[in-house]
Amino acid sequence: TPCTAPRTFNISFSVGIFSVEKDKLSSLKSSIDVASALFQFLSKICAAIGVLVVLLYCAQIGFFPKGLSLSDGLVFVFVVLAFAFVIVVGTLYGGFSMLWLFRLLDFVQDWRIRKWKARGAIPEQRPKGMRLPAGLVSWPLVASSSMVSALFFLAFWQIGKTKPDQADALYALVTGFLVTGYIVLLSFMRPLFDGETQKDVRQRKLLRTLAALSIPLVPLVFGSSEQLLAATMKIVALRHDNVAVELSTDNYSRLESASKAMGVEITSCPLAGGHVLVPHADVLWNGVGSRTLLRVTGEGPGHQLTMDADNSGVWILRTRAHVGSSTCG
Question: Between the CA of residue 132 and those of 32, 95, 129, 188, 190, what are the distances in Å?
């Protein structure tokens, strides 16, 4: 009858909407599952890289913390994020500091083009070469790059005069970042003239691949791994340089005995409760595990003494700038 047709249409239409909504929910669930699996995979990769960074640092300072295990996955993730942050910031600094050099290279390229045009602009004699996009070598960026480079080199020169023991490692680290930044900029270069060949495209892809690989490797190999790893550990508060530490009675007794045996005179201040304040210390490892590694600076043949201490009996108080030898006797 005429009355039954609309009902059939309405039922079919409702079933169609339900089927579409069901497909959307199924697709959403599938996307969530994929995202969850990807997140778990990336977390494991980050934790694995973090373990490697921690192992390199521990091998460097000659100490492996007790009580540290693979279950401290969040710590390893933080370590690799801090490591990536240092690498990225250092590479950006290196690349930005090299922009003025690429601008100078552009002057050479322009001179070659002018000579080619003066000879009649013969296509077969067209000069070959590459240059960065104009936006990257604009005068404001080049001027800023020159100023940043000059300021940093002045700062490094001052550090070399005031802290010669740290100068070589710092110079090596900065040089590594400059080389990395230079390689990254090379991957953005374009031919002098339009009309790229397949060979040009392949070369640019190869440069980009090398640039991506060089970002974590060049600062470690060509630069100073000591400074790089130390900066990473400072960001996640596993390391503290130039600080004063409060030691428990047991920890200070061990430090005092070792300092006498090594002939290193340690400056210290007695505190309430039998605790002792040591104003000249570097905390090389702290916060994770049951042991803390201290490097105490004193006077004597060795000048420095490194020892591990019970983590529960070490408190980091303030920077060395606020506590000096005149305060403790």
Answer: 41, 12, 11, 6, 6
